[in-house]
Design a protein that fits this description.
Keywords: DNA integration, DNA recombination, DNA-binding. The strands form 2 sheets. Strands 1-4 form a two-stranded parallel sheet. It is globular and about 60 Å long. It is built from 13 helices and 4 strands. The longest helix is centred in the N-terminal third of the chain and has 18 residues, at 19-36. It has helices at residues 2-14, 19-36, 43-54, 59-75, 102-111, 115-127, 162-175, 193-201, 204-207, 216-231, 234-241, 246-252, 257-267, and strands at residues 93-94, 146-151, 154-159, 255-256. It has 271 residues and is mainly alpha-helical. The protein folds into 2 domains: 2-81, Tyrosine recombinase, N-terminal domain (DNA polymerase, domain 1, Orthogonal Bundle); 96-262, Intergrase catalytic core (hpI Integrase, Chain A, Orthogonal Bundle), CATH 1.10.443.10.
């Protein structure tokens, strides 16, 4: 099975899957193959595996893991063993303790004494780019007010606000960065997702913001919700975020349960 897994991973690389997706597929499939052990590949086996996942993970996480398993089964010639994902009722709101508010974002920036961390956060939040796309912000292209980003097999244009451009200009001048990527480590290497996550986490106590809300992807969510409240155009927002499906974009603009509760109160249907 180890050989089959490696052959499948090579196949995904040829299909130009991103590094993050490859890493996730390898992790999910290794878990499944470890569960299988010496047992023959059968539909009953995969169903039992699905049930075992549901004992420990949320339905959405189980579906994500099953997507990798089903893809592998189809590739390996076991299409008859594929299983259905778990049906989940669409959520109309998300948990309050997972939403980073605009005020909390402002407090994080105000509490930040490191110009690099602050500018990374401002760049992610004001453009909506993924943290993995930060390397497209270079000395050569930031002045153009727009950059071309290639990710998940698609190319899209990302616009940079004038105020962000001014901040980037001051930063590279002070740091004497003359070419290439703007956001780099002190040794000149590209900053990875984990390093940026740690930089942000260090601000939480001083800013008085729950750590569960503070991670790079939540800045992309804040961009999405802010834009949608202003324009109410989910199709354009999907294009700005680089989503292939509007259903993905809907997840980004879920209101908090507190906002949903207030909407119910404002209906005044209890006389």
């Amino acid at each position: 099975m180890g050989y089959a897994l490696e052959a499948f991973m090579d196949h995904l690389m040829q299909e130009e899957y991103t590094e993050n997706t490859l890493s996730k597929y390898r992790r999910d499939l290794s878990r499944f193959l470890e569960y299988q052990g010496d047992q023959p590949m059968t539909k009953e086996l995969v169903i039992r595996y699905k049930k075992s996942l549901l004992l420990h993970y949320r339905a959405a996480s189980v579906n994500s893991m099953l997507a990798a398993v089903n893809h592998y089964l189809e590739y390996a010639g076991y299409s008859a063993c594929k299983v259905h994902t778990v049906r989940i009722q669409k959520k109309i709101y998300t948990e309050d303790d997972r939403i980073l508010t605009r005020k909390e974002y402002a407090r994080l920036l105000q509490s930040c004494s490191d110009p690099r961390t602050q500018l990374i956060m401002e760049t992610l939040c004001s453009t909506g780019i993924r943290v993995s796309e930060l390397h497209y912000i270079t000395v050569e292209n930031y002045r153009k007010k727009m950059i071309k980003v290639y990710n998940k097999g698609k190319e899209r244009v990302v616009f940079l606000p004038d105020r962000l451009i001014a901040h980037l200009r001051r930063y590279i001048k002070k740091r004497k960065i003359t070419s290439g990527e703007i956001f780099i480590s002190r040794t000149g290497k590209r900053l990875d997702r984990t390093a940026i996550w740690r930089m942000m986490k260090r601000l939480c106590a001083k800013a008085g913001v729950d750590q569960k809300k503070v991670f790079p992807h939540n800045l992309r969510h804040l961009f999405a919700t802010t834009y949608y409240r202003m324009k109410k155009d989910i199709s354009k927002l999907a294009d700005l975020l680089g989503h292939s499906s509007i259903e993905t974009t809907r997840i980004y603009i879920l209101e908090s349960s507190r906002s949903h509760y207030q909407d119910l109160e404002n209906m005044h249907l209890v006389i």
